[in-house]
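Feature request, filed as a ticket because there's no other form

It would be nice if the structure record came with a short human-readable summary line next to the tokens. Right now we just get the raw output. Example of a typical job, pasted below so the devs can see what we mean:
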Amino acid sequence: MGKIRNPKSEIRNYYHKAQAMLVAILMITAAALAIGLAVATLSFSEVKISLAGRDANTAYYLAETCLENTLMRMARSDTSVPPTFTLPSGSCTIEISGAAPYEIISTGRVGNAYRKIRTTVSINNEVLNIESWGEAY
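Raw output as currently delivered:
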């Protein structure tokens, strides 16, 4: 006698295999999605850090430019505090204290980043002497 085929049994077996395959595909998709989200999060963080660094560098050079402008004014016998400089990329302010030697603090601001440069200068016989120059923290 031949073997009797049961179509219902074959269909059930096919559905069990399909369910197992569906679960495996869902697990692989979930793992790929988790890896993709992790990479996207890291990339976003790196971009934020890079932009913050760029803004900090721009603020430093802006502070340095304003300080050099102030030193040029002082070399021309103008020891008054210059106004705040506002540029499209940011702004800078100058603080002058003391009377010979003068302490000058230049602060550059770009977005949330700011950098300060502190210098001490003296003027002798119309000659400007820079005694110290460095970043202030």
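Something like this underneath would help us a lot:
The longest helix spans residues 7-75.
The first strand starts at residue 85 and ends at 87.
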